[in-house]
């Protein structure tokens, strides 16, 4: 496997063309999403969480989060190595590799708070989320040449009785052709996730532009500044059809780290 994100871009595009065609045939019926929360971000010196109201905060119905491509580097066994069946994949802190390697990914700390719900707005207790993303250089562990022997920035967590779960990670870099993002898959249970079976959905979380620019102004993210300047949400193959259900709400700063929050619904 070569470290070639242009190749990965073509892979994603081919997958998404099929999804967009299906949407056009259906006329988008039942697939238009209701916004979870306004997506704003704090300034670099603020640690006050952004405000906003979720359409599911009071148990109101939600449309399910859109299905997206897992990309060429999923790590669930569908395109090569399978991280899900490895001992150690169930963890909240995904900054370091587990097993034979203990290397820790560099970058600004990012806590990812997710709330999984049913379309009726009720918590999806017991659902499991497998989450992964690229590192500060835009590389994916288990695939990209520089980190092929690592498995950091990948992990599984189980939703509690409120449908909530959390990962501690680092802010991903921006690579050529894609807006900064985080991948995740949802499974009906921890048991199903750790055997890579009966997946409910695959989607992606988008990161706000203001926060990205703040982070990419710090040490180590120089290449991300250039890569992000060459794309936009309107150009991105995944997010150009809208990010109402996928844009994270941010709080925090570069000194103490950021928190990205997202509430979303999936079918049980």
UniProtKB/TrEMBL annotation:
Keywords: Dioxygenase, Oxidoreductase
Record region (Disordered): 40-86
InterPro entries: Intradiol_dOase_C (IPR000627), Intradiol_dOase_core (IPR015889)
Domain of life: Bacteria
Single GO term (MF): dioxygenase activity
SUPFAM superfamilies for this protein: Aromatic compound dioxygenase
Compositionally biased intervals (Low complexity): 40-57
Claim: Oxidoreductase is one of the keywords in the record: yes
Domain Intradiol ring-cleavage dioxygenases: 104-176
PANTHER family the record matches: INTRADIOL RING-CLEAVAGE DIOXYGENASES DOMAIN-CONTAINING PROTEIN-RELATED (PTHR34315:SF1), PTHR34315
Protein name (record): Intradiol ring-cleavage dioxygenase
Annotated organism of origin: Lentzea indica
């Amino acid at each position: 496997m070569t470290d070639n994100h242009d190749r990965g871009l073509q892979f994603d595009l081919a997958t998404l063309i099929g999804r967009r065609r299906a949407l056009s045939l259906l006329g988008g019926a039942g697939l238009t999403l209701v916004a979870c929360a306004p997506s704003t971000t704090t300034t670099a010196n603020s640690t006050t969480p952004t405000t906003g109201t979720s359409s599911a905060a009071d148990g109101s119905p939600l449309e399910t989060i859109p299905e997206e491509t897992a990309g060429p580097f999923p790590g669930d066994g569908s395109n090569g190595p399978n991280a899900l069946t490895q001992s150690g994949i169930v963890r909240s802190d995904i900054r370091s590799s587990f097993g034979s390697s203990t290397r820790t990914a560099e970058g600004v700390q990012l806590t990812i708070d997710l709330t999984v719900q049913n379309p009726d707005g009720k918590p999806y207790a017991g659902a499991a989320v497998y989450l992964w993303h690229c590192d500060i250089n835009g590389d994916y562990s288990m695939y990209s040449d520089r980190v092929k022997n690592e498995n950091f920035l990948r992990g599984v967590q189980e939703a509690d009785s409120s449908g909530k779960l959390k990962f501690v990670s680092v802010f991903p870099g921006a690579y050529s052709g894609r807006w900064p993002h985080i991948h995740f898959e949802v499974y009906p249970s921890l048991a199903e996730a750790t055997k890579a079976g009966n997946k409910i959905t695959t989607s992606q979380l988008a990161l706000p532009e203001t926060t990205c620019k703040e982070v990419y102004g710090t040490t180590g993210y120089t290449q991300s500044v250039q890569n992000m300047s060459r794309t936009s949400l309107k150009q991105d193959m995944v997010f150009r059809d809208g990010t109402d259900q996928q844009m994270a709400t941010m709080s925090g700063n570069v000194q103490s780290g950021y928190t990205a929050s997202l509430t979303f619904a999936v079918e049980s």
